[in-house]
From TrEMBL, chain A:
Binding site for D-glyceraldehyde 3-phosphate: R165
Entry annotation: catalytic residues: K81
Protein name (Swiss-Prot/TrEMBL): Pyridoxal 5'-phosphate synthase subunit PdxS
Domain PdxS/SNZ N-terminal: 7-212
Protein source organism: Planococcus donghaensis MPA1U2
Catalyses which reaction(s): aldehydo-D-ribose 5-phosphate + D-glyceraldehyde 3-phosphate + L-glutamine = pyridoxal 5'-phosphate + L-glutamate + phosphate + 3 H2O + H(+)
Keywords: Lyase, Pyridoxal phosphate, Schiff base
Positions contributing to D-ribose 5-phosphate binding: D24, G153, G214, G235, S236
Gene transcribed to yield this protein: pdxS
Entry-linked PANTHER family: PYRIDOXAL 5'-PHOSPHATE SYNTHASE SUBUNIT SNZ1-RELATED (PTHR31829)
Subunit structure of this chain's protein: Homohexamer and homododecamer. In the presence of PdxT, forms a dodecamer of heterodimers.
Protein's pathway: Cofactor biosynthesis; pyridoxal 5'-phosphate biosynthesis
Length: 294, 204
């Protein structure tokens, strides 16, 4: 009678993260700082996105020793990244008991045509999306949580804003449509008709949608919440800042109290220097991580 | 109308608010001490207990929450909320609110891959209840005055200690509002206050 790995159990885990901040960490010490600051989960990886971008080469799943070290260090959930379409990396992470897998465009894709069939796994998955069609396809494959792709490792929020606005605008459009318009919209978006019917009746996505990719300050985190994100992922923004402990705490508090602007002003005072950002137009189209996946 | 607060620092706040409203009561999101005024009961939702604790401390909510507990108004904790209520948390010297006479152990069913759903028989709530357990805690032991409401595979997963109700699982993730209704029934209707309390009455 007891059932594991059901949609309710996998999606429910993401529901429990709502209003929270999930932080990228590369070792046990950073994981403990994140937990103490109030992170709802940590993402264990070998290099944060800004270092991946700087170093170039192929970015893969982290050394299992790092993931294991992080899992031992904290009691909050631990997520880890697998390459798009890399069935074995995903199975390894599942076997290790990782709590959530990010099938992530931050790593170099292993498959340029097919994403993982995520509903075959007991462990839940989070995936990136830039629009409602991409969201529909990832959920169709079994993703239990979504996030914007943004442009990881840039400290520039503009792409995450674009993607969240795009998804939410498309949801509003679907909700306002009459039923007889849905099939054509399904074709146009590359989404299934059944999915659009569900979105129309719920008035939102059937899974939690976080913001990710370029969040560098407490105000950035609050902005994404204001735009309707259910929570935020912060990658390079914390441990590439001057004072990770203070940045981490301030981002957690700004996410909870995202409409309390006086408080966010206080939180943002004397935080030190945020990570150095990158203007998106200076990144060659072929090097934009958001273009990975379909 | 009964006014029920839902601690809204992080976690499954929206679901509890929806459930309270579906049961015909008013739901209030509680982020600051002043939001606790004029409530008849309070729900502590599922989420991450370490995150909620940090935000409780940072914004001076601990004392107001404990004072709220002292008023005798009902409080209901689900999963992380149960951990916040418990008098003792295994492996930690520091309880959170520490008001409910139970000892809980965090993540005691394993990691997320071990999370599950199962039908439960709950005392006082008829029929099987589809319960969703996510990295759930369980109640290791209860005090003398605490009533065990449900045991699953030998582990206590729901209990009631006076005005405190706590469960390991997430009723807010289902559309079954029987547990929320049960909690609302623990809140004394204001109109009842005009009448003699039936429990004292029967002892006369």
């Amino acid at each position: 009678m007891t059932e594991q790995g059901t949609d309710r159990v996998k999606r429910g885990m993401a529901e429990m993260q709502k209003g929270g901040v999930i932080m990228d960490v590369v070792n046990a010490e950073q994981a403990r700082i994140a937990e103490a600051a109030g992170a709802t989960a940590v993402m264990a990886l070998e290099r944060v996105p800004s270092d991946i971008r700087r170093d170039g080469g192929v970015a893969r799943m982290a050394d299992p020793r790092i993931t294991e070290e992080v899992m031992k260090a904290v009691s909050i959930p631990v997520m880890a990244k697998a390459r798009i379409g890399h069935i074995v990396e995903a199975r390894i992470l599942e076997a290790m008991g990782v709590d959530y897998i990010d099938e992530s465009e931050v790593l170099t894709p292993a498959d340029e045509e097919f994403h993982l069939l995520k509903n075959q796994y007991t462990v839940p998955f989070v995936c990136g999306c830039r629009n409602l069609g991409e969201a529909a396809r990832r959920i169709g494959e079994g993703a239990s949580m979504l996030r914007t792709k943004g442009e990881p490792g840039t400290g520039n929020i503009v792409e995450a804003v674009r993607h969240l606005r795009q998804v939410n605008a498309e949801i509003r459009k679907v909700v306002a449509m009459s039923e007889d318009e849905l099939m054509t919209e399904a074709r146009n978006l590359g989404a299934s008709y059944e999915f659009l019917k569900e979105v129309k009746s719920l008035g939102r996505l059937p899974v939690v949608n976080f913001a990710a990719g370029g969040i560098a300050t407490p105000a950035d985190a609050a902005l994404m919440m204001e735009l309707g994100a259910d929570g935020v992922f912060v990658g390079s923004g914390i441990f590439k800042s001057d004072n990770p402990e203070r940045f981490a705490r301030a981002i957690v508090e700004a996410t909870t109290h995202y409409q309390d602007y006086k408080l966010i002003a206080e939180l943002s005072k004397d935080l030190g220097i945020a990570m150095k950002g990158i203007e998106i137009s200076t990144i060659a189209a072929g090097e934009r991580m958001q273009e990975r996946g379909w | 109308m009964k006014r029920v607060g839902v601690l809204a620092l992080q976690g499954a706040v929206r679901e509890h608010i929806k459930s309270v409203q579906a049961c015909g009561a008013e739901a209030i999101a509680v982020k600051w001490p002043k939001d606790l005024e004029n409530l008849d009961g309070l729900i502590l939702p599922g989420g991450e207990s370490t995150t909620m604790r940090r935000l409780i401390d940072r914004y001076g909510l601990m004392e107001p929450l404990r004072e709220f507990a002292q008023t005798g108004k009902p409080m209901f904790g689900t999963c992380a909320g149960l951990i916040l209520l418990a008098e003792t948390v295994v492996g930690s010297d520091d309880a959170h609110l520490g008001v409910m006479d139970v000892t809980v152990e965090r993540n005691s069913f394993g990691r997320q891959v071990d999370s599950f759903e199962a039908p439960l028989e709950i005392r006082g709530i008829a029929g099987p209840f589809e319960a969703v357990f996510i990295r759930a805690p369980h109640i290791v032991s209860v005090g003398a005055g605490t009533e065990v409401l449900c045991v699953h595979n030998g582990k206590i997963v729901m209990a009631k200690d006076g005005q405190f109700l706590g469960c390991s699982f997430h009723p807010e993730l289902t559309d079954d509002h029987r547990i929320t209704n049960y909690f609302l029934s623990m809140i004394q209707d204001k109109s009842d206050l005009l009448l003699p309390n039936p429990s004292t009455y029967s002892k006369v």
